[in-house]
């Protein structure tokens, strides 16, 4: 499924709408080039989950955790850009976090092709008029919640 997002505000708005459907145990992967809108989408989602202020990019921390009362549900915003390979993923403890948290993962390709097969996979690409094209890979666990 493909959705056109006209600008950065529309990308954040999509993240806000997505927040109404995410729950602990979910993984949402965000793929796209630098500047494609991955962090904007995540910021919209986190804002709708109650995060006051703007969420920082987790580029340097790699994992930025949020939990009640800061957000309605526990959520980890993850940026794997700086990982050298999938073998470093175990050190982050993300699989254990899925017991009670949702994951929003930027640069999921760094985790290897077998990571999170049941994730809602969102790919963002820039279009010629400054908007974004969002393509969704919707797994069976998300079918009842999709489209957003």
Automatic annotation (TrEMBL):
Q: Which Pfam families match?
A: TsaE (PF02367)
Coiled-coil residue spans: none
Biological process (GO) annotations?
Answer: tRNA threonylcarbamoyladenosine modification
Q: Where in the cell is it found?
A: Cytoplasm
State the organism's lineage. Answer: Bacteria, Pseudomonadati, Pseudomonadota, Alphaproteobacteria, Sphingomonadales
Provide the alphabetized UniProt keywords. ATP-binding, Cytoplasm, Magnesium, Metal-binding, Nucleotide-binding, tRNA processing
Family of the protein in this entry? Belongs to the TsaE family.
GO CC annotation, single = cytoplasm
Q: What is this protein called?
A: tRNA threonylcarbamoyladenosine biosynthesis protein TsaE
By its UniProt entry, which InterPro entries does this protein fall under? P-loop_NTPase, T6A_TsaE
UniProt KW Nucleotide-binding keyword: yes
| GO function term, MF aspect, one | ATP binding
Q: Does the keyword S-adenosyl-L-methionine apply?
A: no
């Amino acid at each position: 499924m493909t959705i056109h997002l006209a600008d950065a505000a529309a990308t954040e708005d999509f993240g806000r709408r997505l927040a109404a459907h995410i729950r602990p145990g979910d993984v949402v992967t965000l793929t796209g080039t630098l500047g494609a809108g991955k962090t904007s989408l995540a910021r919209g989602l986190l804002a709708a989950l109650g995060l006051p202020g703007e969420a920082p990019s987790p580029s340097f921390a790699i994992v930025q955790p949020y939990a009640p009362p800061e957000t309605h549900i526990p959520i980890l915003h993850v940026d794997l850009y700086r990982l050298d390979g999938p073998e470093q993923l175990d050190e982050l403890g993300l699989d254990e976090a899925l017991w009670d948290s949702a994951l929003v993962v930027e640069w999921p390709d760094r985790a290897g092709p077998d990571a999170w097969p049941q994730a809602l996979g969102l790919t963002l690409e820039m279009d010629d008029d400054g908007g974004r094209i969002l393509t969704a890979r919707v797994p069976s666990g998300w079918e009842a919640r999709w489209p957003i």
